[in-house]
Amino acid sequence: MKVLLANVEEVFREAAARWTLVAYAALSTLFIGLFAIAVNLDVVDGALAGAKLFGRELQMGPKTVDLDKLVLGFESGFSGFLYVVATFLAVFATAHLVPRLQEKGTIDLYLSRPVGRVPLLLSRYAGGLLLAGLNVAYLIGTMGILIRWKTGVVHPRFFLGGLIIFFTIATLMAFAFLVGVATSSTAVSIMATFAVFFVAAILSGHRHIEAALSAEWAASLVRGLYWALPKTGQLAQVTVDFVSYGELARRTRDIDHLAVFGSTGLFGLASLALSALLFRRKDF
After folding, report:
1. Quick one: which of 223, 225, 194, 196 has its CA closest to 208?
2. CB-based contacts of 57, cutoff 8 Å, min separation 6
3. Tally of CB atoms within 10 A around 58
4. Quick one: average pLDDT of 175-184?
């Protein structure tokens, strides 16, 4: 346990020394600040009487708007936005952890300690997860406080939606570790992880893609890729739908949640296990 805590602490020290921690916090604060100055709401007796977006008056019609439904819509939209922002920031902030570890001199120092290679790699992964998790909590927690301050209303599911975002980050980070072990390149880790994110999102519509293909082998390839890769597109939809209390269920009614979470989790576990195997066998 002491070794794990020491390695996790070193992840944060390294992030601070390389200005990653500062940039991570600054970008997150920038997104929060944009929301804070962009939306101005005029709430009267629990209903929305007027609103401004980036200083421009929004037409509310002759009647006031139900505040609870408006906040629910805000939270659902923000959860989808935060899903993308938090995931991208997490990949950028943690993709260097394995390539940096494998640099000459750094790896020699770590391997001279009485700790196995697999625990060393997993402790770096745990440190990266903690760093990303704290940022997700910061983003969603601060955004929730702002929503409460501007409207007087906030729903618990907005905060719980962060768990789905964190699950996605954990999966993609495991893949980034696998690429990092194989290539020792931060840039390749970032590009490969984002490629998986976008390709998997596109494959959310695999049925339509398969129907448009004339060759059976091509359709089978698309279907195989869909099941092999994490379900980033469906996870985004599930996040928004969960936060909206099922108000958007018509968009996700055909999603098999068990298959989506199960296959994504297996992808992450397989990536992490393979990265540990490669790291243990690597010649340093």
Report:
1. 223
2. 50, 51
3. 13
4. 96
What is the signed CA dihedral for 231, 235, 236, 237, rounded to 10 degrees? 110
Residue in the structure block whose two tokens are 């729903």: 155
Angle at 184 between CA 181 and CA 190, to 5 degrees: 90
The full 3-state SS of 219-242, as one line of letters, equals: HHHHHHHHHHCCCHHHHHHHHHHH
- pLDDT above 60 for 255: yes
Where would I find the beta strands (DSSP E) of the chain? 39-44, 47-53, 56-58, 65-66
Q: How confident is the model at residue 125 (pLDDT cuts 50, 70, 90)?
A: very high
Q: How many CB atoms lie within 10 A of CB 6?
A: 12
Tokens of 160: 């719980």
Which of 130, 128, 141, 127 minimizes the C-alpha distance to 29?
A: 141
> Is the dihedral angle over the CA atoms 179, 185, 186, 187 positive or is it negative?
negative
Q: In this structure, what token pair is assigned to residue 106?
A: 């750094």
Give whichever of 37-41, 43-47, 196-200, 244-248 has the largest mean pLDDT: 196-200
pLDDT tops 90 at residue 31 = no
| Confidence class for position 24, pLDDT limits 50, 70, 90 | confident
Q: What's the pLDDT score for residue 73? A: 79
pLDDT at 245: 76
Which pLDDT belongs to residue 8?
A: 78
Pairing of strands 56-58, 39-44: unpaired
Angle at 177 between CA 173 and CA 180, to 5 degrees: 135
Q: How far is CA 145 from the centre of its chain?
A: 20
Return the amino acid letter for 22: V
Across the range 172-187, mean pLDDT stands at: 96
Q: What are the DSSP E strand ranges found in 23-158?
A: 39-44, 47-53, 56-58, 65-66
